[in-house]
Amino acid sequence: MGNDFRVTAHRQEVIEMPTSPESNDPRPDLVVTVHPSSILRGPPEARDESFAGLVADLRFAASLLDATV
To answer: Where are the stretches annotated Disordered (predicted)?
Structure first.
């Protein structure tokens, strides 16, 4: 992704990762979200909002899994 990639600008974006010859997964996807520890490292007054954003990201990722089953 590189140093210019900003997670906050791409949250809940689905990025199709390249496949490798060894991979059995025909289309590995990556869902952009924050690392959970970033919530604890952030300002205490923003933790509830940050946690809610993480939960929303994970629900989005789960909905994609549900759609493929």
So the answer is: 1-29
SS3 35: coil
For strands 14-16 and 29-31, give the pairing: antiparallel
Indicate the domain borders of the chain: 7-19+26-68
Burial 11-43 (b: 16+ CB within 10 A, else e): beeeeeeeeeeeeeeeeeeebbbbeeeebeeee
Coil vs helix vs strand at 8: helix
pLDDT in tens, 21-50: 776 666 667 888 999 999 999 999 999 999
Contact 15, 30 (CB under 8 A): yes
Across 1-69, the runs of DSSP E, i.e. the strands, are 14-16, 29-31
pLDDT score, position 41: 96
